[in-house]
C-alpha cells in the first residue's frame, strides 16, 4: 500500500490505527492523506472476476475500495454462517491488498445498498419488530453474527499488516431511527472484538440525519450526489470532511427509466469536494449485478422493486467495460499520485451474437404441482411462517362461489398469478388491483394462487416487512380456508408437462467453443426468472427498463450450456445472445 502523497510504501504493523482525523483532514501514519475510494460489492461480482474489477478500480486512480457486508448473504439460515466460495470476504479483502488498495469495510447489520431486506436476514426480521434498536433480542442476534464476522476482519487491519483502514459503525442511521444506545452498542461491538482502525458513520446532508446518525468516537461522513457545500456546513467539530457515498449514478426500479449521470457532472462534484480538502468514495465505482433474487425494493406510495442490474451507470460497467466517467475520475484522481497510475486492464471478451430457440417444457401449474406440499393450514401463511426467503410460493384450496362473486387477496406481497382449476384468471399486484371476478355462473373448483416476492424492502420505515399473503383470501366478504402451500425451489425447473402457450418453463441449449461474457435478452417474454447452467441470473420483466441480463464468462463452459426460464405470464420463443447491454430509456439523475 502506498500513501497517495508519498512514493515510498508505508507498511506499519505497530497495532496503531493507520488513519487519524482532525478538521485539517486525514493523516495516514502521520502523513497527510486523502481517501480516494470507489465502491465494489464482492457479493455482486462473480469471485473469478474480483481481481479484474479491483484492478480496474486501481487503474481509475483509487487508493481504497469500500464494500458493504450483507449479513443475509452469509447467514441465509440461522446459525449457518458461511465464509467460503462467493462468501469468502477475507479472500476479497486480501486480493484488494495485493492489488495495492486500502479497504473500507461497512459491516453494519443494516447496509441498505438496494439489497434484499437491507442485508438483514429474513428469519430475523420475520420475528423482530425492533430492527436497528437496542432491543435485547435484536442485539443478541447482531452479537452472534459479529462473533463470527469481526474476528475474521481483525487480522486484516492495517495495524496488523492488512489492508483494512476504516470500519463503518452503522449506515445512514439518521434516516431511520434515534436510538443512541444502539449506536453506542455497535461502536463497542467493534472495539471490544479487536477493531482498532478508524470508525465512521454515514448520513445524508440534513442536520437531523447527522444528529441521530452520529456517535462519539466515530468520524461522521456524508452521502450525497451534489451536496458538498451543505456537508461543509454540517461537518462536526473535530471531523475531517468525507463523502462516504458520492453518487456518480443511481439504481433502477422496474417500470421507471434507466438512471444516468453525465461524466462532466460527476467530475464537477468530485473536483469541488477535493478542492475543499475532502475525501470520497464513489458509489458505485463498479455496480455489478443483483444475481438471483437479491434485489431490494423501495416503497413510496407503491412498491418499487429494484431491477436485477446494479450497473448504476458506474465508471466501470456491469460487464467491466469502461466509459467516459472512468476517464474523468481517473484524471481527477491522478494529481494525488506521485507516479504513473496502474495500467488499464484489457477489455472483456464477448460471445458472438446469436438467437437460440426456447423449447417449451411445462406450464406454470405443472411446475407448481411437481413440488411437494410443505404445510396445510386453515389460513394462508406468510413466507416467514413457511421459512421461504424469496421467490415463488403457491397457495391452493377448494373454493365455492356464487354468481357474480369477487375474489380478493388481502395484504398481497407482492404479485400473484391466479388460476381456477387449470384456467388462468389473471394477475394481481400489491398497491394495484388485488381483486378479480370469479366466473359469472358460479360454482366451485381448485383455486391456485402463485405469489412472487418482487424484492424485500431495503430502506425506510417498512424495512423488514413480510412477504406472501399477509392478510387472507376472501370470496366477497367470506374468508376462504383450508390452504396447502408449496415453496418453489430456487433451482431451475426441469419438469416436463403440458407446455401451454402462456406462462411456464422453457429450455435453450447454447454451444460454445470457449466461455466468454454475454448479455441475454428474452423477446416476447413477460415476467420471468433465468438460470444459466443451474445458476439463477435474475429476472426479466417486459415493463423494463432493463432488457438484458448479464451472464459473466465464469458461468459458461466450453460445449453445451443450458439456459432455463420460468415465466409466470408469457414465454417468449428465443434467447438472444448479445455483445452489449440494453438498460432501456434513460433519464439524468444527480441526487442532492
From TrEMBL:
Keyword Transcription: no
Beta-galactosidase 1-like first all-beta domain: residues covered: 380-486
SUPFAM superfamilies associated with the record: (Trans)glycosidases, Galactose-binding domain-like
Keywords: Glycosidase, Hydrolase
InterPro entries: B-gal_1-like, BetaGal1-like_ABD1, BetaGal_gal-bd, Galactose-bd-like_sf, GH, Gly_Hdrlase_35_cat, Glyco_hydro_35_CS, Glycoside_Hdrlase_35
Domain Glycoside hydrolase 35 catalytic: 29-333
One of the Pfam families matching this protein, by short name: BetaGal_ABD_1
Start and end residues of each Beta-galactosidase galactose-binding domain: 509-561
Reaction(s) catalysed (UniProt annotation): Hydrolysis of terminal non-reducing beta-D-galactose residues in beta-D-galactosides
Annotated PROSITE patterns: GLYCOSYL_HYDROL_F35
Principal EC category: hydrolase
Gene3D superfamilies: Galactose-binding domain-like, Glycosidases
EC number(s) given by UniProt: 3.2.1.23
Family the entry assigns: Belongs to the glycosyl hydrolase 35 family.
Protein name (record): Beta-galactosidase
Amino acid at each position: 500500500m502506498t500513501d497517495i502523497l508519498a512514493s515510498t510504501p508505508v507498511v506499519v504493523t505497530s497495532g496503531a490505527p493507520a488513519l487519524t482525523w482532525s478538521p485539517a483532514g486525514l493523516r495516514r501514519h502521520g502523513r497527510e492523506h486523502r481517501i480516494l475510494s470507489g465502491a465494489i460489492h464482492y457479493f455482486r461480482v462473480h469471485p473469478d472476476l474480483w481481481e479484474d474489477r479491483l484492478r480496474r478500480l486501481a487503474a481509475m486512480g483509487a487508493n481504497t475500495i469500500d464494500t458493504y457486508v450483507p449479513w443475509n448473504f452469509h447467514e441465509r439460515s440461522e446459525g449457518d454462517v458461511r465464509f467460503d466460495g462467493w462468501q469468502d470476504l477475507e479472500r476479497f479483502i486480501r486480493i484488494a491488498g495485493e492489488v495495492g488498495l486500502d479497504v473500507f469495510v461497512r459491516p453494519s447489520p443494516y447496509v441498505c445498498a438496494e439489497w434484499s431486506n437491507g442485508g438483514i436476514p429474513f428469519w430475523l426480521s420475520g420475528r423482530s419488530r425492533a430492527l436497528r434498536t437496542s432491543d435485547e433480542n435484536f442485539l443478541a442476534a447482531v452479537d452472534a453474527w459479529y462473533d463470527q464476522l469481526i474476528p475474521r476482519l481483525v487480522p486484516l487491519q492495517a495495524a496488523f499488516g492488512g489492508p483494512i483502514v476504516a470500519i463503518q459503525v452503522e449506515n445512514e442511521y439518521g434516516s431511520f431511527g434515534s436510538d443512541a444506545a444502539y449506536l453506542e452498542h455497535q461502536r463497542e461491538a467493534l472495539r471490544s472484538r479487536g477493531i482498532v482502525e478508524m470508525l465512521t458513520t454515514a448520513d445524508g446532508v440534513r442536520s437531523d440525519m447527522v444528529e441521530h446518525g452520529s456517535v462519539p468516537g466515530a468520524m461522521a461522513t456524508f452521502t450525497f450526489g451534489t451536496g458538498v457545500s451543505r456537508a461543509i456546513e454540517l461537518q462536526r467539530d473535530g471531523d475531517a470532511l468525507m463523502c462516504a457515498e458520492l453518487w456518480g449514478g443511481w439504481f433502477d426500479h422496474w417500470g421507471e427509466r434507466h438512471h444516468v449521470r453525465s461524466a462532466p457532472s460527476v467530475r464537477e462534484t468530485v473536483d469541488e469536494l477535493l478542492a475543499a480538502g475532502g475525501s470520497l468514495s464513489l458509489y458505485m465505482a463498479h455496480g455489478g449485478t443483483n444475481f438471483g433474487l437479491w434485489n431490494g425494493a423501495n416503497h413510496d406510495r407503491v412498491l418499487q422493486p429494484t431491477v436485477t442490474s446494479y450497473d448504476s451507470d458506474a465508471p466501470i460497467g456491469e460487464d467491466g467495460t469502461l466509459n467516459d466517467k472512468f476517464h474523468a475520475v481517473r484524471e481527477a484522481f491522478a494529481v494525488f499520485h506521485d507516479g504513473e497510475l496502474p495500467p488499464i486492464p484489457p477489455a472483456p471478451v464477448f460471445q458472438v451474437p446469436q438467437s437460440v430457440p426456447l423449447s417449451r417444457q411445462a406450464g406454470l401449474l405443472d411446475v407448481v404441482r411437481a413440488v411437494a406440499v410443505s404445510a396445510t393450514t386453515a389460513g394462508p401463511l406468510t413466507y416467514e411462517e413457511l421459512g421461504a426467503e424469496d421467490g415463488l410460493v403457491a397457495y391452493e384450496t377448494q373454493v365455492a362461489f356464487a354468481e357474480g362473486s369477487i375474489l380478493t387477496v388481502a395484504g398481497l406481497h407482492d404479485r400473484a398469478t391466479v388460476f381456477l382449476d387449470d384456467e388462468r384468471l389473471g394477475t394481481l399486484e400489491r398497491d394495484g388491483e388485488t381483486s378479480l371476478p370469479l366466473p359469472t355462473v358460479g360454482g366451485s373448483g381448485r383455486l391456485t394462487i402463485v405469489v412472487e416476492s418482487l424484492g424485500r424492502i431495503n430502506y425506510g420505515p417498512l424495512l423488514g416487512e413480510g412477504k406472501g399473503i399477509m392478510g387472507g383470501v376472501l370470496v366477497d366478504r367470506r374468508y376462504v380456508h383450508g390452504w396447502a402451500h408449496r415453496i418453489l425451489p430456487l433451482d431451475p425447473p426441469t419438469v416436463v408437462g403440458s407446455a401451454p402457450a402462456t406462462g411456464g418453463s422453457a429450455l435453450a441449449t447454447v454451444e460454445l467453443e470457449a466461455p466468454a461474457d454475454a448479455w441475454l435478452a428474452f423477446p416476447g417474454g413477460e415476467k420471468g426468472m433465468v438460470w444459466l447452467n443451474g445458476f439463477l441470473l435474475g429476472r426479466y420483466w417486459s415493463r423494463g427498463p432493463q432488457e438484458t441480463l448479464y451472464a459473466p464468462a465464469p458461468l459458461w463452459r466450453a460445449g453445451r450450456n443450458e439456459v432455463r426460464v420460468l415465466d409466470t405470464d408469457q414465454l417468449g420463443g428465443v434467447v438472444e445472445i448479445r455483445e452489449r447491454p440494453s438498460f432501456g430509456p434513460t433519464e439524468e439523475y444527480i441526487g442532492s
